[in-house]
Amino acid sequence: MVNKIAAGVVRFQHDVYTKRQRLFRELAFGQSPEALFITCSDSRIDPNLITQTDPGELFICRNAGNIVPPHSSHTGAMTASIEYAVGALKVPHIIICGHTHCGAMSGALHPETLDKLPHVREWLSHAKAAELIARESGEGLSEEAKLDLLTKENVLLQMAHIKTHPYVAAAVSSRRVEIHGWVYDIASGEVVAFDEARRDFIPVSEYYRDQIKCNDQQGDAPKISVV
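The structure corresponding to this sequence follows.
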């Protein structure tokens, strides 16, 4: 497997880098990403592939369950990364993206399976409120439907958590930053976004219809845009 990964590096250097040297040389001197993209560490999730974005366009943070701990005096990787993205890089958008069949959310729903993974269990305590909502409002649902409900509720919970971070709170207040909640369906490729007006998740193609149409009219690359 390592040989396959190493061979991929060589192909990148010979085939990809040589064709896009100008982009990479520009990126060598700084970055100005369009969005802070927070998603799960799951190996099946590839933010740049899903959004069809180039290097330099997304500032990506990944962890089990796309968790954003509420702000505290404790300095952790997520806290520092969020602060840097919003306070230093001035990203205009924050996207929190969950996904279907998430192992972390399954663990949150069945904490008894995490007895031998104490750090994972503690980390997922940041999804506890979403888990309780899914249990109460999802009573009678199938296991899969309850997991899907938890996945969406967890995205909404983490959207609330990130607003407790000082730089985010200030940027949201001044309308410099917009927060988006997405869920990616691995099997179908569909991505849904939370619509505050409807209090529901709807297809990205519908939620951002006007922005996508504007991109198409301008002749931009066919990618999902949140700007």
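Residues 143-162 form the longest helix (20 residues).
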